[in-house]
């Protein structure tokens, strides 16, 4: 069976870049420490434990939840983090998107790792995590600038692709309202040339 991915409306496309509109979606998220690779592995392990059955369904029993793509990571400076972030995502101005979100290490930084939940679920029907480090968040509809790339998504490659996307969005005079997200669509055993990665940055529609 094909892995479900979030639906979006393609607003614009060039050879290397896309503008997309995503509707509301539910995500399971956790915060982890370490560099990009270590955080990605740790966050995936925590969230995989949840979808593989460490949860409580409305029936009172555990339930397996099918995997979706991508797994996302995102970078964020801690001083901009909303104290109520576990309940309501915060829009953050950019100073210069598997989702992974990182807070800078010098500020006790952590990465935020997210799994998107299947579209069939609602907040009421989705099994609740037994692990208190996992939160279920309703992400509001957003528009993103996106750049795709294959191969390994190491920190240097991610930084280079992020810079490309930021430069292109600035040229398009888009008002950025989020920090870059790294989205990975393939399991770790996928050959590098077959991998699909994306950097996503939220912006304010005109």
TrEMBL record:
Gene3D superfamilies in UniProt: Regulatory factor, effector binding domain
InterPro entries reported in the protein's UniProt record: Reg_factor_effector_dom_sf, SOUL_heme-bd
Superkingdom as given in the UniProt entry: Bacteria
One Pfam family hit: SOUL
Record PANTHER family: HEME-BINDING PROTEIN-RELATED, SOUL HEME-BINDING FAMILY PROTEIN
Name of the protein in question: SOUL family heme-binding protein
Organism of provenance: Psychrobacter glacincola
């Amino acid at each position: 069976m094909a892995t479900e991915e979030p639906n979006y409306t393609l607003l614009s496309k060039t050879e290397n870049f896309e503008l997309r509109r995503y509707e509301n979606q539910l995500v399971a998220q956790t915060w982890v420490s370490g560099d990009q690779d270590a955080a990605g592995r740790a966050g995936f392990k925590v969230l995989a434990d949840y979808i593989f059955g460490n949860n409580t369904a409305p029936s009172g029993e555990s339930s397996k939840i099918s995997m979706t793509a991508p797994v996302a990571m995102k970078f964020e400076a801690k001083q901009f983090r909303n104290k109520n972030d576990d309940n309501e995502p915060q829009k953050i101005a950019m100073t210069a998107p598997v989702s992974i979100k990182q807070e800078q290490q010098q500020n006790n930084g952590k990465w935020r790792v997210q799994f998107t939940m299947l579209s069939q679920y609602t907040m009421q029907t989705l099994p609740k995590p037994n692990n208190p480090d996992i939160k279920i968040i309703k992400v509001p509809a957003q528009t993103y600038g996106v750049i795709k790339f294959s191969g390994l998504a190491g920190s240097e490659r991610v930084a280079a692709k992020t810079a490309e996307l930021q430069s292109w969005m600035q040229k398009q005079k888009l008002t950025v309202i989020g920090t870059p997200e790294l989205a990975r669509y393939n399991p770790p055993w996928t050959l590098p040339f077959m991998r699909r990665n994306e950097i996503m940055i939220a912006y304010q529609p005109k």
